[in-house]
Amino acid sequence: MTSFVFILADDLGYADLGCYGGRAPVSPAIDRLAAEGLRFTQGYSNSPVCSPTRFALMTGRYQYRLRGAAEEPMTGKFRGSTEVGLHPGLPTLPSLLRDAGYRTALVGKWHLGYPPHFGPLASGYDEHFGPLSGGVDYFTHTDSQGRHDLMENGAEVERAGYLTDLLSERAVDFVRARAADREPFLLSLHYTAPHWPWETRDDAGIAPGLVGRIAHLDGGSIHVYRRMIEHMDEGVGRVVEALDVAGLGEDTLVVFTSDNGGERFSDNWPLVGGKMDLTEGGIRVPYVVRWPKVVPRGGVTDQLAITMDWVATFLAAAGVEPHPDHPLDGASLVPVLRDAQATFDRALFWRMKYRNQRAVREGRWKYLAIEDDEYLFDLAADERERANLARRHAGRLAAMRERFAAWNARMPRAPEEAGYSLVYTRKDMP
Q1: Are 349 and 65 a contacting pair, CB within 8 Å?
Q2: So which residues are the catalytic ones?
Q3: What is the Cα–Cα distance from 141 to 5, expressed in whole angstroms?
Q4: Rounded Cα–Cα distance for residues 235 and 323 (Å)
């Protein structure tokens, strides 16, 4: 049976990796994955901010269907909430695979609601090690409110060490355990890297001063940021090596991507914008896939893909049916994995409460609306979104606007009380 490793970076920019044109040699292990498998050039996240994307990743459905995903993103104020989180009764990727005989583990960030009402073990994972909140310090493992947040199977634990390395080590241990028992598995390895605070392995000395202020607005640099990516990349390499040494690599489908576009030190070139934006820099992300048994080496595809597709893809590869009462919005990418040129037409949709943003991607065209302004871009010619073709192609603009409206009418409305959270504004940096 095919096993699965889904590796999710946090706030990684589209061009941070060497295989996506990165300007610094920070990702040899991930670049090797791309050389041994398939790279998507038109891969998207379900949202330009973290927790909504994670709702889509768990359910295989547009996150707008769920109350918790209306928060952009979910914050610590929802500790104890009975409403804002991933409800245990919903079928998820791990619960569907677990029920089909898979061993399931989340190593890393959860960010889908707090105990006692929500948590990884209540939503299909057999085991969990990592933080529950949106971000933690890499050494003190404290969240943005200064609370210690490192959990193991529902209990708070103390572990000394740099969080990226702790997660990598636990993921390797999980792979080795599966090599011993030969159970098929889903390993969700959700790093917090390279999300703030800006700390490398050598920066333990600054961690005590960041308790309760991990947004770290007065710190960081592109050099620190790149080193954080290197630490994560080393962990990815160790996990893949463990798969191969155990003889599991041939029939394990490994995916590497990011939960949204880059933040303040990221490289999104040639894209514009970043986290919180429905411009390409906020939602276009790296997708690297390795599955030696199926995926030819060194492939590149321009197939439009989005985070929730991986639920349909993994279920199809495992021969597991979705829950009939919760049909998937995502599409299986297995045909594209087998043949990078076997692409199919589709439309993708986004909305954000922040600045009332709306977007549609269909073929080479993108409709984008931000507050009262509308844009139409030909991304095949202008992926930087600088040439607004709204007047020249008014009919296409109107048709895509109407298509968005029809899709949006099928989605629940965002609750009035749902909010968005900005880490910094122009007062903090230009």
Answers
A1: no
A2: 50, 111
A3: 24
A4: 34
**What is the per-residue burial (b if ≥16 Cβ within 10 Å, else e) of 45-70?**
bbbbbbbbbbbbbbbbbbbbbbbbbb
- Which DSSP string do the residues of 348-393 spell out, in sequence order? EEEEETGGGEEEEEETTEEEEEETTEEEEEETTT-TT--S--TTTT
Write out the two tokens for 367. 């409709």
Which pLDDT score, from 0 to 100, does residue 397 have?
98
Neighbours of 424 (CB within 10 A): 11
Is residue 165 within 8 Å of 235, Cβ to Cβ? yes
Give CA–CA dist 147/248, Å, rounded.
38
- pTM of full prediction above 0.85: yes
Q: Which residues pair with 184 in a beta bridge?
A: none
Dihedral pair phi/psi, residue 257, rounded to 5°? -155, -170
* 36 confidence band (pLDDT: 50, 70, 90): very high
Write down the pLDDT at residue 362: 98
- Band the pLDDT of 258: cuts 50, 70, 90: very high
Average pLDDT, the chain: 97
Q: Containing H/E element for 289?
A: strand 287-290
Percentages (nearest 5) of helix, strand, coil residues in the chain: 30, 20, 50
